[in-house]
Hints:
By secondary structure, this protein is of the alpha/beta class. About 25% of the residues lie in helices and about 15% in strands.
Amino acid sequence: MAPAASAAAVAAQRLIGVSRLAHAPRRPSPASSHPPKKFKSLTEIMAKARFAVIEREDYSDAVCDQCGSGEQQDELLLCDKCDKGFHMKCLRPIVVRIPIGSWLCPNCSGERRVRSFSQKKIIDFFQIQKGADAKNKCSYSQDVKKRRRRSASLVLQKKRRRLLPYIPTEDAAQRMKQMRSLASGLTALNMEFSNDLTYSPTMAPRAANQAKFENGGMQVLSKEDNETLEYCRAMCRRGECPPLLVVFDSCEGYTVEADGPIKDMTLLAEYVGDVDYLKNRENDDCDSLMTLLLSTDPPKSLVICPDKRGNIARFINGINNHTPEGRKKQNCKCVRYSVNGECRVFLVATRDISKGERLYYDYNGYEHEYPTHHFV
């Protein structure tokens, strides 16, 4: 009897075990533990979806969707998505050159997204070197005092205007805001930050950028002004940027305004980007080409193209200085110098600039070299 009882007990325990296993809550499998996938909205999908426009045989009846006029058809742009027409001067911001390739109107291009940047991303974006060039800051201030003592002892010396270094904002949080605005603007244009001229194998080599090729010669940057330039570059490497903000305006597009008072003759920035031959960019749709070298041999003339790489100079607005309104707005200028035998372009304040004032410089170059008749 005892063996039978023990066998029944074992069978009962087995049944209880099976019952517990059957009613116990199931643990989630590793495959089902992943968070649910986030799907894109229909608006985001349609914004990137391919589109096709049925070409009409006759566009003579095309009119501007903004002003309703069909005149000046040579300046009428047709959207490749909705097929609506827009005058170049009716768009905001104004389109200066006829775009190369496909073009979308403001409604079809979608809203401009502003990317947020943390402090770490800002440091990585601008490659800020913490604690770097601290000695340069002290040596520069000592050199300034020596120059003042030397100039005070001279009599009847011809006064020459020196370049002044910009004064960065003392508040570190505000400086971070200034750099964040620049990073957002560069990212919106799919650009990389660069504070130097870039020489690509497919463009002009660095050997082509020699000041001795300049037609009529080029002014040489003095030793004192070169020290100012190096001091400003050292401040940029430390993250002490010029007191400038990149803002977006519905009429002028991206523009730059002073985030603090700026003195006359202050060195604001160097105009940088890819260096290329002017002959290769004659039909370029970039709206910010800058003359770097006007050679005695025209095919060897060089321009700066800030369409892929650049700094805050890319967003400072050019004005048409052939009009009284344009001359009144101008508060800085572009100056070309020979620095160690190479051509460089700098933006310098031409008068005292107050906080909140937008920056404008002469973009006409030589007479009507650039199409600035629509500039604000």
